[in-house]
Write a sequence for this structure.
């Protein structure tokens, strides 16, 4: 009987395991997860879980009963420490060895750690795991002051949740705008306004120059000279893919474990998906995404290809973030400031920004306009080419379908 092994216990691992069974894989499947929990999804950690509105059962992807129904072997609290590619074996921290016919690396990513005086302080938090969220939540008492270091998605979502819970919130960012890597300037500005309107203090083009406090941070001095007293510091300065295992085994590594459009690594028996995978497309461009949908879609495609389907993965990448009552969604290629852009204004500051390249719709950002996203998805799937400026002027986007 064939044996497929999946390394990692997150979104990609859970989706791959389910897909294998949905697609009729009859061999054995083992999931190796270093976390001591059932596979769970992470997006609620900075939102509903931190707000106390979702417990672990709500975020669990494969409950105990489903493990049994799907005949999946989950090794919890086991870390994969080495790959023996010649012998097609995974070596676990316990010394146990697992043989595989096909292997999926779905080891995700981990928070980038901060150097300097903030590191190691008792009130400095990172947010990646359910345990991290529980620890942070316990510290977030109303009236306290929370500082997010980094104005990326995690820093901003945590600041928004803090305000909802009655804390004071501030964000310090070295760049001149929010989510500078993913959002065009005008969308970053709109997001900044929302934060300011909710009383979050945003410090752009700013560094922390001094940290006061011995075991815990009591205050930080900013490059502007301002001193901020703080109770809680959350670091959100990006993530690093967990590639070490693959790299030590001699697999090709770029900005992640390099895979082809079939999600195959440089070893044909080994696949990778999710945050850890850097997919090289036909043009040689290598793209690594950190998003729920990417983990989900790539893992499903990888699982089918592990079973021999051989179909190339190409999906318009989709991402969302919830901050306060704002829902922001992005699809396809829409992050750059350039290209041809059409803007549709909605009510109360909502808008949809549509990007066209080579005469075709290539992506969109829906800022508090989730209904538009459903239409954009259908337009993208059809390979829609706009006539003139109809994307901006059509009274109803649905009419373009
Ligand atoms: C707080 C937070 C909020 C987010 N919000 C959003 C959002 O709103 N929208 C969105 O699109 N995306 C969001 N994301 C991103 C999204 O959750 C990730 O892109 C997704 O979880 C990636 O799934 P993955 O399976 O690739 O990796 P992960 O979920 O990181 O899972 C990898 C697992 O592998 C384990 N592992 C690593 N190395 C080993 C090893 N050697 N042996 C065994 N196990 C190992 C890890 O411990 C981990 O459990 C958020 C992420 C976080 C942390």
């Amino acid at each position: 009987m064939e044996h497929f092994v999946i390394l990692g216990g997150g979104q990609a691992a859970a989706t791959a395991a389910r897909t294998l069974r949905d697609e009729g894989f009859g061999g054995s499947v083992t999931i190796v997860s270093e976390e001591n929990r059932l596979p769970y999804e992470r997006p609620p950690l900075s939102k509903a879980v931190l707000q106390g509105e979702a417990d672990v059962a709500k975020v669990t992807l494969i409950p105990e009963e489903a493990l049994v129904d799907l005949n999946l072997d989950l090794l919890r609290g086991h870390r994969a420490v080495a790959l023996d590619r010649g012998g097609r074996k995974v070596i676990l921290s316990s010394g146990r060895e697992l043989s595989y016919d096909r292997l999926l690396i779905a080891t995700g990513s981990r928070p980038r750690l901060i150097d300097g005086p903030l590191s190691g302080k008792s009130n400095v938090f990172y947010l990646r795991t359910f345990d991290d969220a529980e620890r942070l939540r316990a510290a977030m008492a109303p009236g306290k002051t929370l500082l997010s270091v980094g104005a990326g998605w995690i820093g901003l979502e945590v600041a928004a949740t803090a305000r909802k819970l009655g804390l004071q919130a501030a964000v310090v960012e070295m760049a001149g705008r929010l989510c500078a890597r993913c959002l065009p300037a005008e969308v970053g500005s709109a997001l900044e306004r929302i934060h300011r309107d909710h009383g979050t203090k945003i410090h752009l083009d700013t560094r922390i120059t001094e940290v006061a406090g011995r075991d815990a941070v009591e205050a930080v001095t900013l490059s502007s000279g301002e001193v901020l007293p703080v109770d809680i510091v959350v670091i959100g300065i990006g993530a690093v893919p967990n590639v070490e295992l693959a790299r030590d085994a001699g697999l090709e590594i770029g900005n992640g474990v390099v895979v082809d459009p079939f999600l195959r690594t440089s070893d044909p028996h080994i696949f990778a998906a999710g945050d850890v995978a850097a997919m090289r497309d036909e043009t040689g461009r290598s793209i690594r995404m950190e998003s729920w949908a990417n983990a989900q879609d790539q893992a499903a495609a990888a699982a089918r290809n592990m079973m021999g389907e051989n179909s190339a993965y190409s999906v318009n990448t989709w991402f969302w973030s919830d901050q306060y009552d704002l829902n922001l969604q992005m699809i396809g290629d829409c992050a750059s400031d350039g290209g041809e852009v059409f803007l549709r204004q909605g009510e109360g500051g909502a808008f949809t920004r549509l990007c066209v390249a080579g005469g075709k719709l290539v992506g969109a950002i829906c800022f508090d306009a989730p209904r538009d996203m459903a239409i954009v998805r259908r337009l993208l799937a059809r390979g829609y080419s706009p006539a003139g400026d109809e994307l901006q002027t059509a009274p109803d986007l649905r009419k373009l379908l």
About this structure: The first strand starts at residue 3 and ends at 7. The domain at 113-235 is CATH 3.50.50.60 (FAD/NAD(P)-binding domain). Residues 7-13, 32-35, 42-43, 45-46, 79-80, 106-109, 127-128, 154, 242, 245, 274-276, 290-293, 295, 319-321 surround flavin-adenine dinucleotide (CB under 6 Å). The two ends are 48 Å apart (CA to CA).
